[in-house]
């Protein structure tokens, strides 16, 4: 998937944007019921969710050992006997996602598995650091070997409606990312309105983000289907305007197999099949894999596996 080159800042069309919140909420609430999945299909959707997970640890007490265990899980997210029973081989998660100081350990642990390392940067999670330090952090993460960079935006730019400042900041970050692909975390739980979410999504794509991501996982409200729907529609509009496909990453609080299915139904309904693959869809999650493995185990064996099978997830 080629990088999104972005465009100039284009705000025409947003001056009096109004989002019909009750209508968006209604649509989001009915989404999970839009596809009734047969049992076999459900297992296939869960396996697909696994390959789209950015398996994440972003905690103050992260250690290289924890990251190595996480990477082992990313290389082999589902027990081999369960995969063999389903005739699946070579399944990995979409990436692992860690702090910059853990990138080198993650690269070592992932070896030649082909699983990319995503690093948060730019003063994650609040982003309240001088811009030159945030850009230096991106460059540091890339020097350590990061393949993807998850940046955070300055929420105050959005809250003040200073879209030019947001665009310029994101452009500078895009440049610092070089060949690494960039995910822009909007921290939607901080943005006050769906209109702000929609405009910030557009500005982030215009500045060259390869994915737009809902949340850091540290806001009071993280990924919801409602903000995700608004962001997906922005992605659809951006594609219609520019021909470029930008990815989507819901993150924060996604912990159940049911969540994994609901967000995939959203992608399928709003954006189409292309957005059901890791190039355009990632689920940022630290604890989702455990429930998915439980459900897959139930599918294969007819019973739920004991907790030790899902050690880190
Ligand atoms: O980017 C990923 C998030 O930090 C993960 O959030 P979570 O720990 O609620 O799954």
TrEMBL record:
Catalytic activity: 2-deoxy-D-ribose 5-phosphate = D-glyceraldehyde 3-phosphate + acetaldehyde
Keyword Lyase: yes
InterPro entries: Aldolase_TIM (IPR013785), DeoC (IPR011343), DeoC/FbaB/LacD_aldolase (IPR002915)
Gene3D superfamilies: Aldolase class I
EC numbers for this chain: 4.1.2.4
Family: Belongs to the DeoC/FbaB aldolase family. DeoC type 2 subfamily.
NCBIfam families found in the cross-reference section: deoC
Name recorded for this polypeptide: Deoxyribose-phosphate aldolase
Gene (name only): deoC
